[in-house]
Amino acid sequence: MFRWFSPRPRVLRPRSVVFQHRARLLVEPLEVRNLCSASPVLTLSAVPLTSTSLQINGSVQDANPSGVQISYKGAASGSTTTDSNGNFAITLTNLVVGRPLSFIGLDSQQLQTNAATTILEDPASNLMIAVNTGPSNAVTVNGQLSGSNSGGQTITFGGTLVASTVTNSNGAFTYSGTSSGTGMMTITAPNGTGTTTENLLPTIPAAPKIVQFVAQSGPNNVWTFSGNVSSKDVWGSWVTLTMPSGQTETCLCDGTGKFSCNITLPANSSGIATAVATDAFDQNSGTAECTL
After folding, report:
1. Which superfamily is assigned to 1-123 in CATH?
2. Residue 17: predicted pLDDT
3. 245 exposed, middle or buried (CB, 10 Å; 0-12, 13-18, 19+)?
């Protein structure tokens, strides 16, 4: 099944899927961050081709959408680039059911897109959902229950969202509420043999933390700033460094949360340099400091 997670824009599910396997699509919040210019925005769709393969189609909205590097990891790993219109398409095979596949883009100005994740779902489920998150833990769940008796059925939410709603005559439902925050949300729907429970990713994970930040001077007034960021999923995070002069630079974190940047400063620079980490949900850490 396909499930999309995105506060905006909403991605509509394809209606032409004929295979039993479905893909669950999780698109993290698409807030625009303003570093030097507006960050690019990644949108993604996934269509099952077989029980172990997906057709991935995506696009990047950017001032210069051509040649944006799209990297992916998880059920498969690799990279591709967008065409002159910001579009890309890849076919991935030999995937494992239930293992996430995450995507993120990097444009020519070293600005990152939001991250997006899709999952090739177990075909036994008969419930398709899309979860949209908003400010202050707001959650809207849209869903479709399939089957001959899908109308008038009770859908029950648990975990971070405790509520229930009833499907209309066509099996569709919508519910808006407020989640309790970080954690798992479950959705239980009746089917021919009982109930199925869908485990969703956290609507809002904990903000990142900078656990180490140091600076070391080198030849020709080049300073190396490095450290480590702790986060539930540090992939897609970056660190904004601010020098005593007000100069700012951005460093990307690697898959373990480490970051390192070489910055040329004026001779005899001194004072306090600061670092703030931002994750793929555009959540900021506290400010870390080091003395030059």
Report:
1. Immunoglobulins (2.60.40.10)
2. 36
3. exposed
Instruction: Provide the CATH topology of domain 127-203.
Output: Immunoglobulin-like (2.60.40)
pLDDT of residue 6: 43
Q: What whole-number distance in Å separates Cα of residue 160 and Cα of residue 237?
A: 25
Q: How many CB atoms lie within 10 A of CB 129?
A: 23
Report residues of the chain scoring pLDDT below 70.
Answer: 1-38, 97-98, 119-126, 128-136, 147-148, 181-184, 191-205, 233, 235-236, 281-282
What is the distance between the alpha carbons of residues 49 and 20, in angstroms, rounded to a whole number?
10
The three-state (H, E, C) secondary structure of 228-266, written as one string? EEECCCCCCCEEEEECCCCCEEEEECCCCCEEEEEEECC
* Torsion angle in degrees (nearest 10) through CA of 285, 287, 288, 289: 170
How do residues 100-157 score in pLDDT, each as one tens digit? 777 888 888 888 887 777 766 555 456 766 666 655 677 778 777 776 677 888 888 8
Tally of CB atoms within 10 A around 209: 14
Fold of 209-291: Immunoglobulin-like (2.60.40)
